[in-house]
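We emphasize that the prediction below concerns an isolated chain of 259 residues; any contacts that depend on oligomerization or on bound cofactors are therefore not represented. The input was used exactly as deposited, without trimming of termini.
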Amino acid sequence: MLRKLPKQLIYALFIVVPFWLLFFNSPFFHGVKMSLMSFGASSVAVARWPVDELGRVISYRKTYNEYQKLKREVGGLKARLVALEENGAANKRYVRLLDLRNKSNFVTETALVVARDPANWNSSLMINKGKLDKLRPGMAVINSSGVVGKVAEVASDVSKVILLNDSGFSVAVINQRSRESSLLSGSLSGDCRLQYLPEDADIRVGDEIVTSVLSSVFPEGLLVGTVSEVYPGEPGTPPRAVVEPAVEPSKVEEVLVIK
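Result of the prediction step, given as a token string:
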């Protein structure tokens, strides 16, 4: 019995002493108690550090995977938005083109631009209509903004169109303000110029140039462009004028071919 007593006392001390230290209000033991609690808290913090770090790694990996998933979803939504915007813009162009077709008094064929010559990007293009659609060289090509050009070559299902700023293009035009007739031609430099103006031609920057009744290909009254520069001629020579096309060659995507 006596041999067992020290072991029981030790057990009792392990139980009673901590309890006593926690609830006994002596200043000395209060300091000891706080030191022990601080040591215990530090030990717990040290013991928990690997667990916390592992939790952060797992949480970071999970968050990163969710970020990658959201990034892919946002990328897909952006692509769909761009496609919808492109379809919306195309639909607006089609509506304007069909509106022009319905209001016109001439027979037309709707065509899409399918290719361009890399060496002559802004002077010619290819459309997806040809001999099978009864297209012929020389036919006028327009869109809702005005004159585009004319058919130059025709294959079975495609045609080449030279644009109005090509050196091979020309059309009889009239100054809508002064009613003076002239000939608009493209040039090697890509400009549209008025030729055969009279010496006393009344022409100003900003004048709108439209197709003339004298044209054998284009109906009269179609907008060709606006005068952007005027150079007075020397005595005995007519003035020179540069015309900014109403149609931007690089932005042509759909056209009407006048049959």
